[in-house]
Phosphoenolpyruvate synthase/pyruvate phosphate dikinase
Amino acid sequence: MGINNKVSTGLKGFDQAIDMLRLGDNVVWQVDAVSDYRKIVEPYVTQARLDQRKLVYVRFGSHAPLLEDSPEIKVYHLDAKKGFESFATEVHSLVEQEGHKAFYVFDCLSDLLEYWYSDLMISNFFKVSCPFLHELDTIAYFAIKRNVHTYSTIACIRETTQLLLDLYQVKNKFYIHPLKVWKRYSPTMFFPHLIQGRKAVCITASSEAAELFSSINRGEERLDYWDVVFNQAKSALTLGPEEQEKAKRLLMTLLIGSESRMFELCDRYFTLKDILNIAAREVGSGFIGGKSVGMLLARKILEQEGHDRFIPYLEPHDSYYLGSDVFYTYLVQNGCWKLRTKQKTKEGYFKYAPELKQKILNGKFSEPIREKFMRMLEYFGQSPIIVRSSSLLEDNFGNTFAGKYESVFCVNQGTPEERFAAFEQAIRTVYASTMNEDALAYRMNRGLFDKDEQMAILVQRVSGDYHKEKFFPHLAGVGNSSNLYVWDKSVDMNAGMLRLVFGLGTRAVERTIDDYAKIVCLDNPLRTPPVNCEDKKKFSQHYVDVLSLKQNTLTSQSWEKIVNDDLKVDKNLFASWDHQTANRLRELGYTSNHLAYILDFSKLLKDTEFPGLMRDMLALLSEVYDYPVDIEFTANFTADNHFKVNLLQCRPLRTRGLGTAMQMPELVDEQDCFFSTRGNFMGGNVRLPVDFVVYVHAQAYAERNEQSKCAVARQIGLLNTALKGKNVMLVGPGRWGSTTPSLGVPVHFTELCNMSVICEVASCDAGFTPELSYGTHFFQNLVEAGIFYVAIFDGQEDVVFHPERILKRDNMLTAILPQCTQIADVIHVAQTDGLVLFSDIVRGQALTLLN
C-alpha cells in the first residue's frame, strides 16, 4: 500500500498507533452515546477539509445532526422507514454517484432499529454496502451503540469492516481501544489509548488497564432461561433485604454450587450485587469453579474485614469465567460424551483417557461461543492473559488438586486471528488436562473418580508490565498462613511463610533446575535458612520466567540479562551487591557489574511494608476460613517503592496435624541412629514406626543412563503400589519428583503417594542436592497426603547419617518385585521392624532410631 493511500484520522497520535487509515477503509466506532461519536467525527472531517477531500454525510438517524450545514459537505437525507431494501439501494446509488475516493460520515446505525426492528437487517445492510465502499477506495465512518446489538450483528460487522474501534468516555477522558485493524500490526496497536488533544497515550500496565476496563459497563446478550433468572434477580435489587437474600442464594447455587463450607463463606460475604457482577463476566452458563470462587472470596474478605488495611494495596482484577456448561457443551458437540461415559467406569478409567484427551484437543467450539471468546479477547486487547483451570472440585476444603490441571499463558501477540487461535487452543489444553494421568490418579486415590469434575475456566489478565520485549511482574509467589517448614526453633510457624521469586510465579510453584526461590518466614523476614556464606549465591534465584513478545511464549531468561533492563523501579529492592563475586570478576578482568547482583530481596523485606502486609493478609484469611490457607500472588512496584498486590488464588491448605510435642529420645550412641538432623524437615510432631525403607544408592543411580534412571522411577512406582498400607520410608539422592534425572529420581507424585516418609539425601560425590522447595505444588501434595519430608545434608553440622544400618539388612526387592533383578544394585528394600521416626517441630529435630 503506497503512502498516497494513507489517510489521517485528524488525531496525529492515534494515526501513529494504527499506522493511519487506508483508502478503502470502513471504520466502525462502538460508542455509548452519539455525542461521543460526534467528537471523533469532528477531527476526521476537519482533516478531510484540509486535505480537500470530497465529503458526504448520509443522514437518516433520529439523533441530532453530526455535522453542521456546509457547502463543502454533500448531505443525503434518506428515509429508513421505507425499509431495508429501499435504504440499501439508495445508499448503493449515492455511493456509485459520488464515485472513487469520497469520504463518508454515516449516522449511527443503531437508529435503524427504530425503523427495522431487526439486527439482522442492519448486519445485512452493512454486509452489502461496505464491500462496495471499499471497492471504490472510499473512507466511511459508522457508529453503533455498545450493548444494543446481538453478538451475531457485531460478528458480521467485525468480519466485514476494516477497522472496529471502541470509544470510551471515562471520567471526562476519551479512550480508543482498537479491536480490529486490517492489514496493520504493531506490538501496542490493540492496547487502549488515552486521547489528549491530538496525542494518543498507549496504556500497557496491567493495573491501569484493569482499573480502566473494570469501570466500564460491558453488557451481555442474554437469551436463554439462565439469563432470564439473572435478569429477574436484578429487579430484586430494589426490594428488601429478605427478598435480596433469597435471590442471592438461588444465584449462588447456579454459580458456586450446592451447600458447602465454601458456599456458606460466600453467602456470608457476597451481596446480591456481587453475584450479579460475577454473572456479568461469565461466558456461557454453569459453575465458575473452585479457583474462581476462592480468588473472589479472598478479595471480598480482605476488602470487608480489612478495615481499609488492604484496599490501597490490592491491584484491581477484571477476570472472566468460562462456565462449566461450556465444557459439557464442548464434549457433547464434539462427540466425546459416549467415550466419556465409558471412561468414567472403573474398568475404563485409565484405559480410555488417552483417546478422550486427543478428541478434546482436536475439537471445535460452536460459533456463538467463539463469538463470546472473541469479545473477551477484544476486551483484553494485547494484554497477556492466563487461562487457568477452575474445576468444581478444585481449591476446596480437603481437595486442592495442586498442579494437577494445566494453566496456559497467552502472550497475546500477533494478529487478532492468531491470538484467537492461541486462546482457543489454551482452553482445549485445560479441558484435556482433566485426562492427565496425575489428575486421574489423584481423583481415584481420594475416592472422587465417580464425582462430576465440571471444568470451568478462569481467564485472568497477567499482572505485570512490559520491560523492553518482556512482560513480567516484579514479584510473584505463594504464601502459607502456617509455616510447617521450620529450621530454627525460634521460627513462629503461625506467622506464615512466603516462597518468593522475581518475575512470573511459575518458579514459585514448581521445583526448578539449579534455581531456588526465596523462603521468607513472616515472623522475621530477614531470617535466612542455614546456608553457608559462600553458598548464598548458589542457593538463590538465577533465572526469571517472563513472557517473550518476540517468541510469543513463556520463557526463562537469566537474571544477569534482566538486571540491567529498565525495571521501572529500584532494582536494589530485589537484589543486593555481591562483593565476593564482584572482586573475583575484577580479578579475572571482567568490567560488567550486573553479574554481581544476588536476588535476595533484602531491601524489600527490610525497608518496605510488603512482608507485614502479606503476614496480615494471610492471618486474616486464615482466621475467616478457620483453617490454614495457601495463596498465590504477584506484586508490582512503582518508582517511589509503592506497590500493589494481585491476589490470584486462595485455597484451604490441608495440613497434617502438628500433634503434641514429642518426648525426643536421647541419642546416646550415634550407631543406634539411621539419621538425625536439625531442621530441614516438614510434617509436624510425630512418632512413626517404619516397616520398610526403600533406599536408592546415589552412586549406582548416577552411573545409569537417562533411560535407566527413568526405569528406576517406574520401579519405585511399583513398590509404592506393592507396599501400600505399610509405613514406608523412601530415601534417595537429590530431588524426588525432578523432571531432570541427573538431579534426582524422576517419579511422578502418584508413584510415591503411598509412602509415609520421603528423604532427600545430598551426595557431593554423585552431584545430588535436595531442594528445600516448601510451597511448591510438589510439597503441597506431600502435605495433603500426610507424607513426612526430610532433607539430609550428610557432613553438615548437627547431621548424623548411617545408611549402612539399613543396607546391611537383606535386600527384599526381588522378593517383592521379581522382575527387578537388573536394578537390585540401585534399589535396596529393607524390612525395618523397630525403626522409629521422631520429630519435634519446636526443637527443630528429626531423629530415627533402630533397635
